[in-house]
Design a protein that fits this description.
This protein is of the alpha+beta class. The chain has a domain of 111 residues: Beta Polymerase, domain 2, CATH 3.30.460.10. It is 36% helix and 14% strand. It is built from 7 helices and 5 strands, in the order αββαβββααααα. A 5-stranded mixed β-sheet has the order 1-2-5-4-3. A hairpin with a 6-residue loop joins strand 3 and strand 4. The longest helix has 17 residues.
Length: 190
């Protein structure tokens, strides 16, 4: 039986020009450790991810500002930006190209390169894991509903277990305190 391999769509001239525009802006602002990753065929969100580092939060913000300015001059309006206030990790969405500008410690912590560069051969050989319910022939949803009914708890009544975030605490907790994008180990204690 032959395996079907997902082919990457061809790179258009507009995509190459946009990548070059971003790379020139990064070079002009002396961005550090610039990495271009082709993510076509892996996601529909973008064709290319460009990851770069800045030396300080001010440097990160300035790099992102220049990328936005150059894109607008070329007639490519950014879909949006995130993180400019804290400037530890700024995301610029240029539709086909996502630009991540990060402080080195934040970049090391989140390791986007490792996330998006898993070997293609390994991805092609991966098979979806079967759950216990699927192995027995019963749909997993029905088993979960039956278990919730038998324990007398429902999701609406607060029966679901709170998930914890990677930095500790409950995810989505309405504590009012603003969480930092920095890893907990690098925050000052006082």
């Amino acid at each position: 039986m032959a395996k079907s391999v997902q082919r990457r769509p061809t790179r258009t001239r507009a995509l190459v020009q946009l990548e070059e525009l971003v790379l020139r802006a990064l070079a002009d602002m002396k961005a550090v450790n610039v990495r271009v990753m082709d993510v076509r065929g892996l996601t529909d969100v973008a064709d290319t991810m460009i990851i770069a580092s800045g030396n300080s939060d001010r440097h990160v913000r300035s790099i992102a500002d220049l990328v936005i300015e150059r894109a607008k001059q070329a007639g490519r309006r950014p879909m949006g930006t995130e993180g400019k206030n804290d400037a530890e990790w700024v995301l610029v969405d240029l539709q086909d190209v996502l630009v991540h500008v990060m402080l080195p410690r934040v970049r090391e912590f989140y390791a986007l390169e490792q996330l998006w560069e898993a070997p293609v051969v390994a991805r092609a050989q991966e098979k979806p894991a079967k759950t216990r319910a699927a192995k027995r022939g019963a749909p997993a949803k029905n088993k979960a509903k039956a278990k919730a009914k038998s324990s007398g708890k429902s999701r609406a009544a607060g029966g679901s277990k709170a998930k914890s975030s990677p930095r500790g605490g409950r995810a989505g907790a309405a504590s009012g305190a603003r969480r930092s994008a920095r890893p907990a180990s690098s925050r000052s204690r006082g």
